[in-house]
Amino acid sequence: MKNRIAVAVAVSLFVAGVGVGYAAQKVAASTFQGKSKEDAARALLDIARVQAKDGSWERIAIGRVLYLGGHKAEGQAIFDGLLGGEHEDSDEFRIARVYREAGEWAKAKPLFDKFAANNPKDEKGLAEIGAFYLLNGDRATAEKLFERSFGIAAEFWATVGAAGAYLGVVPEE
After folding, report:
1. What SUPFAM superfamilies does the record tag this protein with (predicted)?
2. Beta-carbon neighbour count of residue 38 at 10 Å?
3. Tens digits of residue pLDDT in 54-67
4. N or C: which end of the chain has fewer CB within 10 A?
């Protein structure tokens, strides 16, 4: 029931954003200037919703801003709406990144694990997930993922991401 309400809120916010107008080609300074940070963010997110159309990556980006910006329930509703329907593995990966960025490894881990299982040839993804494991104290799992990644190809970003994790540096996204 709680998820249905959250999804309904997300859908209504998305539909409300359509009211901003399809012609939102430019963002007028009056959208954000002289407004509180909260009101400026809301106005810009309304425009972003229209710009996003039906793009899942764009909706995840909006959810990220809400989730990390103190509006977790609204961001979660967007994520739940995406994950509750037909979606790509990359959508789960991007949402897992948001949870990780929020310091919620327990929520991120199962999504990363599912991505790794479904994408065994994604050397960069495997290395990035390995880096997150290492950064969360699980060196054994990290090194297994690094080994899988490097067994596919010695891709630059995978190598740099793994190296950074040993020094406490989060991989570039």
Report:
1. TPR-like
2. 11
3. 888 999 999 999 99
4. N
